[in-house]
Amino acid sequence: MIRVDFTCREELLARYTDLVINPLEEKCLDLLNRVPKPYSDNLRGLITGEGLKELILLSPDKLILKIDEFYSLVPILAERYCLEYSLSGLNLEPEFLDMNISTKASKSLIQAYKEEVINQLNDLLNIEESVVIFDVISSLKSTNVASEIKKYLNRLNNFKSGNYLLNKKELGLFDNWVHELAIVFDYDSMAKKFASELTKELDINICPYCNYEDTETFGDDICTTRPDLDHFHPKAKFPFLSLTLSNLLPAGEKCNQKYKRNRVMLDYRNPYIDGISDNTLFDFEYPPDQGATVQNLVVKVNDDKNFSKNFELFNFKNLYNKKDIKETFVDIFTRNKFIMCLDKSDYEKKLSDVKAIHHDLNVDLTVPIKDRRLQKFKIDTLRKVTGKNFSTKK
Fold it and tell me: What pTM did the predictor assign?
């Protein structure tokens, strides 16, 4: 994952304030008229006046703090939009979720575990008001049938893991104003006016998640092509961040729509905050007596500054063993093998000259890794085939 800077021109921020923030405040004030106390009091400082402006213009490092603030002050919103946040303190033991309940002993065990889970949920309710969790407690209390208990426990586990959609009954437990919050923070309307301009402004031409997919914005007034504008913290889970500029990140279609989707990213690295180091990220294995080919090359990905969750999410193991990426390694490997046949002193001289490296090995060391497709991969390839410790340009 590549670190990128979050910057916007003052002129753009002024227009965003005029065309997005100011109209949004009117909608928020209207919503507050339908929000009961004490929720309205807690929300007012967050979605009006300076609080709203702060929310929309928040710096990337403050996003998680703002999530905690919203969901601690108005916990009913967490239960509606991000149940896994509400249930983060719940401990479910996998052996009970997968238990064979065909025997009398196993049925007794799951009955006892049901009571333990109810106690845990009641402890959560002592901290936060609830509708869905209270409904689950009621359902658990109402049955002594082992299969029903197991069904509710697995539903709870889906809630906790984020693998769920609230059903019609569960959605109906919430007051209308809770649902309306997502409508007020209307990303689609904003995107029609600003999305292409924002992706162009951020000038991120290669997906920061994978350093592989194209994210260039180009075109004119007639036709403009732009990348996905990803919500790092997904708007489905955190609707109040739908319009927050630092939560919007140009990303590759596959990374955004196939891998990341609506995953809660609280434990993942954010490209606006952190990125891989200059350490070698990729290792390469191939038979030393045969040389590297697409068929015998295996690319391995090392962890770097605890990015393993990001690498797993964006499927680095398979991505970086794609044929076209292996061909990139083989091309540099073959070029290096050719120039090694030259005079050794000439070879060493070429490796100390960035222009010669660019010409002969097709790796431009003057380009930052955020601006060139597979740039980190190419530099690590160069390190492998030459034995030299080239640095990545930030």
Answer: 0.92
